Description:
Elements: H1 2-32, H2 37-62, E1 66-68, H3 75-94, H4 99-115, E2 122-124, H5 127-160
Antiparallel strand pairs: 1-2
Amino acid sequence: MGNQQKSTPDILEKLASNEESVATLYKTYGEAFPVLGEFWNSLAGEERNHASWIRGLGAQTENRRIFVSEKRFNAVAVQTVLDYLAKELARLNIEKIPIVEALSITVSIEQSLIESKFFEVFETDSVELKRTLTKIRDDTLVHRNKAKDALETYKKNRQQI
């Protein structure tokens, strides 16, 4: 158990950093594609909120109201995602990508968070904390669905041109 207490802050910080990196990518997409700037800026703001909420969960681990299941947490996978996000940001600085590709990447990021069951890393019996985790999960589903809808719209429009 002592090992869990030592690594829990690191796990939470890694997850919060992941949310911030996603927010930065989305903000950059918003700048690159002003036609969807409001869409991406909205997603970026919510991702920053998620990072803040995850850091807030850290205080709850000290009170033993929430635990991080280290068996469910894969540090290598999270680092791989962080590396990918950094690479995408760097790529945006040197080349222009099509809006359809940016939307496709957005769908992929949100879908990977859903499929990885990122939210199952946390274990709690606190109703308040469960609500926070459910809100993050639900936001992620909404993000994926909004991005999918926008992607389909742009794919249809591209075919009609």
